[in-house]
Every structure is written in C-alpha cells, then in structure tokens.
Amino acid sequence: MSNTSAPAVEARRLVKTYPGGVTALNGLEITVEPGTVFGLLGPNGAGKSTAVKILTTLARPDSGSATVAGHDVLRHPDRVRRAIGVVAQNSGADPVATGRDNLRLQGRLYGVRGAALDRRVDELLERFALSEAARRPVKGYSGGMRRRLDVALGLVHRPEVLFLDEPTTGLDPEARTAMWDEIGRLAGEEGLTILLTTHYLEEADRLAERVAIVDRGRIVVTGTPDSLKGELRGDAVHVELRTALGESGRVLLEGALGGLPGVHEVVFDGPRVSVRAEDGAAAVPALLGALERAGVAVATATVARPSLDDVYLRYAGRRYAEAESGTADALVLAGGAR
Ligand SMILES: Nc1ncnc2c1ncn2[C@@H]1O[C@H](COP(=O)(O)OP(=O)(O)O)[C@@H](O)[C@H]1O
Ligand SMILES: [Mg+2]
C-alpha cells in the first residue's frame, strides 16, 4: 500500500562499488515527490544507470536504503516491481516478435489478461503511434519507434512510478522532440511519477520539474531548473585562452580577475576561464585588459545567460562537456579549435 503523502522515490546514502573497484554510487540521495517528473542529470559514467538498477530492484547497493512507491527495495522487491514500469537504457523488446506480441507478453507477465489486456494493448499502440506497425517484427522498427515501444512496454500494467533511463539517447533530433512531447503528456497523467535520467542538459531543463545533478556517484545539487539557474547571478563570461595555465598562473589570475568590479566566481578549467559578472558585456573589456597585463593570450571571449551547464560547472567544478568526453578528449577539442 503506498501512501500518497510519502515520497514516490526516496534513496538514502546509496553506495555501490563494482568488482574491480569502480565506485559507481558514493552516497547518492534523492527524494521524488509523487506525480512529478524528476530528472537525474549527469555525464556518462556518473552512476545514473546504477541508481536506476538499484531503485528498480535489479541490483543491490553495498549500503544505504531506498523506497519506491512506499516499498523498501531490499525488503519488498516484489511489491516494488509491481508498482513500477522500467524503460532501461538498452531496449528490452524482443526483436523477432511483433510490437503487439511484445506488449501482450509484457501484460501477461504482470497478470493483465483477456479483454482488459486487448484494450490496454490497443490503447498503447494508438497512443504511441504504433498501430500501423503493430503486426511487424520489432527488428524492422526505426530507433524512434523502438523507443516508443519501450515506453509503452513500461506502461502496460499502469505503474505508479515510471523509470526512464536515457529515453532519447541515440535518437535523431526529430524522434527526440517527439519523445519529449510524449513524456510531457505522460507527466500530465494523473498520479504518474516519472524518474528519468539523461546526459542532455536541454532534456532535463525541458522535461523535469526538479533536477538533481549527479557527478561521480553523488548528488551535487538539486532544485527546479529555474531555481538552479537563478542561483547564478548575472551573466557567465567564458574566456578561451591560447594555452592552459599552470598552478601559479591560476593563483595570480584568480586574484587579478576576482578583484575587478562586478566580477565574481572565477573558475579555471583547462585552457578556459569562466567568471560570473553582473553585466557580462560590460565586464569583458576589463577582463581582457587584466589578462593582457598578466601576459595571457586570449583566443575567444563569450557572454551567456546562465545555463544548466554553468550550474554544473559551479557545483561539479568542471565543464559538463569535459566530464562527458573525458579530460583527454576535451583538451584535444580545445586544441583543435585554436
Ligand atoms: N557491471 C559493471 N561492472 C563494473 N563497472 C561498472 C558496471 N556498470 C557500471 N560500471 C561503472 O560504474 C560507473 C557508473 O556507471 P553507470 O551507472 O552506468 O553510469 P551512467 O548511467 O551515469 O553512465 C562507470 O564508471 C561504469 O564504468
Ligand atoms: Mg547509463
């Protein structure tokens, strides 16, 4: 029995280390209110899929606890499984079976039968624009169709909580937009709670009412996308240097730039310096002057309104793209841009 005032998902101090010593989760904590869309946002390798596996009872944590729909994932995994729908990062559909047969099989696994199953399958095929493809084997489906079927499979038994692990990764832009619309509609459905993971900043910004940024197995910050962006005063000014700075150069520049009027939060990241400024455009000449006096050559300077990328930089201490591609790749890209 789930309690409507209790969180739909609650994870406390989850720790998970894989054989070989990779600490995938390092004290992860999240709370998801019922009927909301919650985005777990982080770069590849941050621990998102591991968190989803634990919350959906497919893996056990080394320590920590979690409840889903009011049920303890370790003590009552069967109850949790009945209350949830799971769309894993990799499709779970049988490629040789038709779309309709996949849905029917999934329904039967959850004890939906007879006319109720027929109605539910038709309804989902219609809703996910798969009616015409229903009789064809899934292996002939496009990426977008396959992903829509995956979501339909997760919904057959009318779960209370739906887990979507990277629902749009690998989709082309058109299919991604269609999936966003679909998730947006699902979110409006009565009572359904959605926990989605994504490594797309834009996706979290667009779909999630609350976002938790996960970095190296722990949450670094949680809030609404707007509140997170709102915490960052003023504009972000990103200056691309011709060469990365050494430690002494950083210390010197931190003082020189941080002391400029209206400038705060100087962050160094490889060959890039980012600052926050009350008025970004007004701060650029002073910043460039200070860099020139310090003998540091500048490649480009850009001014931007705060984005979730800036939020990530502030809390995780490195740029999102760098965390995503690994430091080596980020440096190669920056080198190539020179
Ligand atoms: N079965 C596994 N065995 C060993 N290491 C794993 C396994 N699954 C994931 N990892 C590692 O754990 C970390 C987190 O992975 P994952 O949870 O898949 O992150 P994400 O979904 O955010 O990309 C990564 O470093 C990954 O390589
Ligand atoms: Mg993953």
From TrEMBL:
It is found in: Cell membrane. Keywords: Antibiotic resistance, ATP-binding, Cell membrane, Membrane, Nucleotide-binding, Translocase, Transport. SUPFAM superfamilies: P-loop containing nucleoside triphosphate hydrolases (SSF52540). One of its GO terms (biological process) is daunorubicin transport. It is a peripheral membrane protein. GO terms for molecular function: ABC-type xenobiotic transporter activity; ATP binding; ATP hydrolysis activity. It comes from the Bacteria. Belongs to the ABC transporter superfamily. Drug exporter-1 (DrugE1) (TC 3.A.1.105) family. This is ABC-type xenobiotic transporter. The lineage of its organism: Bacteria, Bacillati, Actinomycetota, Actinomycetes, Kitasatosporales.
